[in-house]
Amino acid sequence: MGRLVEGVWKDEWYDTKKSGGNFVRSTSGFRNWITADGAAGPSGEGGFKAESGRYHLYVSLACPWAHRTLIFRALKGLEEHVSISVVHPDMLDNGWEFRNDFAGTTGDSLLGKEYLWQVYTHVDPEMSGRVTVPVLYDTQRDTIVSNESSEIIRMFNSAFDGITGNRDDYWPEPLRDEIEAVNARVYDTVNNGVYKAGFATSQEAYDAAVHPLFESLDWLEDRLSRQRYLLGGQITEADWRLFTTLVRFDEVYHTHFKCNRNFLREMPNLWAYARELYQVPGVAATCVPAHYIRHYHYSHETVNPHRIIPLNPVLDWTAPHGREALQAA
Ligand SMILES: N[C@@H](CCC(=O)N[C@@H](CS)C(=O)NCC(=O)O)C(=O)O
Question: Domain spanning 3-164: which superfamily?
Fold first, then answer.
C-alpha cells in the first residue's frame, strides 16, 4: 500500500491522524471519456472514440469499484471488445502487483509491468497520487482514459452500443435525478461507509460510519420490500453500484470491517434482491470470493495484523430469489 510522489513510489498506509481517525478516500486523477464518436465527454479531453480492441481494463477481482466495471463489461457484451488484466489480490508494500501465482490473475497482459504504479508512471513519469484500480487504458494513445469507476460504467453503458448492438440502458434519462439521489446516499453510507467503519482509527470515526451504514441498509430493506429494484421495476446502475458492496458483505465487511449489527443474509429483502442480481446472466462470473476474502484479510495489516483468513460460511447465491412477485410494484 502506498502512493506515488513525483513519479517515485512511497510505501505508506492511509494517514488517518490528520483526519481525526477518519478514512478519507482521494479523488481519481484521470477523467477522460470514451464516446461513440470521440467527442469530449463531461470531463477531460476528447479523442477517445469507441473502437473494438482499442481499450484495456486493469482490475482487481477483490475491489468493489473495479467490480462495477467488470459487471458493465459483461452486461453490455464488451468482453470481446475490451481486454482485461487482473492484479494479484495481495496489495502490499508495492501496492497492486501483477504476480501470477493466484488463480484468476493474469499478469499485465498489455504492458508487461510488474506493479500497477508502473502503468501510471508509464503514462506520467512525474505523477503524484494514489494508484488505484480500475484503470481504463487506451492502447492507441498509450495513456490512461479514466481511473474513476462511476464514469467508466457510464461509458460502457452506451459508448459502444453501435459496435455491440446492445442497447440495454442502466442510466435511463427519465430516472437520472433519482438514480443520482440514491447513488449519493448509497455511496457515502454503504459503498464507502463500510471502508470508513473498517479503516476508522478512533471509536468516534467508527461510530460515525457504522450507524449511518445500518440506517441505510434498513432504508434499503424497507424500499426493497415494496419494489423489485432500487428505482422500481427496472435494473439501473444504482442496483449494480449497491450490489458490489452487498456481495462482499457477509464474508468481508461484517467481520473484517466490523460492520456486524447484521449479516446481509439476515435481511430478507436485501438478501433475495442481491441473489437476483447475482443470477443475472454474466454477473456470477465476475464475483470471485477467493480474491476478495484473500485481499482484505491479507492486505490490511493494520486491521488484521496476523493475516489470518477466517473460516467463512458458504452462502448459496443460486437459491431461488422469488422477487418476480414484486414486478408490478
Ligand atoms: N474512485 C475510485 C476508487 C477506486 C479505489 O479506491 N480502488 C481501491 C481498491 S478497492 C484501490 O485501488 N486502492 C489503492 C489505494 O488507495 O492505494 C473509483 O471508484 O474508481
Answer: Glutaredoxin (3.40.30.10)
What ligand 1 atom has the least distance to the C-alpha of 68? 19
- pLDDT tens readout for residues 60-105: 999 999 999 999 999 999 999 999 999 999 999 999 999 999 999 9
Known catalytic residue at 63: yes
Annotated ligand binding at 252? The verdict is no
Give the pLDDT confidence of 46-69 residue by residue, as tens digits.
Answer: 999 999 999 999 999 999 999 999
Q: Which residue has a Cα nearest atom 9 of ligand 1?
A: 63
pLDDT digits (tens, 9 = 90+) for 1-26: 799 999 999 988 777 777 788 888 77
For helices 268-278 and 237-248, angle between their N-to-C axes, nearest 10 degrees: 110
Residue 130 is labelled as binding a ligand: yes
Give nearest CA residue, ligand 1 atom 11: 132
Predicted TM-score (pTM) above 0.90: yes
Domains 3-164 and 173-286+313-326 share a fold: no
DSSP state of 23: -
Query: Which atom in ligand 1 lies closest to the alpha carbon of residue 26?
Result: 1
| 71: exposed, middle or buried (Cβ count in 10 Å: 0-12, 13-18, 19+) | buried
Environment class of residue 39 by beta-carbon count within 10 Å: exposed (0-12), middle (13-18) or buried (19+)? exposed
Closest residue by Cα to atom 10, ligand 1, is: 63
**Looking at the domain 173-286+313-326, which fold is it?**
Glutathione S-transferase Yfyf (Class Pi); Chain A, domain 2 (1.20.1050)
Does ligand 1 have an atom closer than 6 angstroms to the CB of 295? no
The yes-or-no verdict on residue 328 having pLDDT over 60 is no
DSSP 251: I
CA Rg value for the chain: 19
Query: Is 287 in the active site?
Result: no
pLDDT given for residue 47 in this prediction:
97
Instruction: Name the active-site residue from 195, 278, 292, 296.
Output: 195
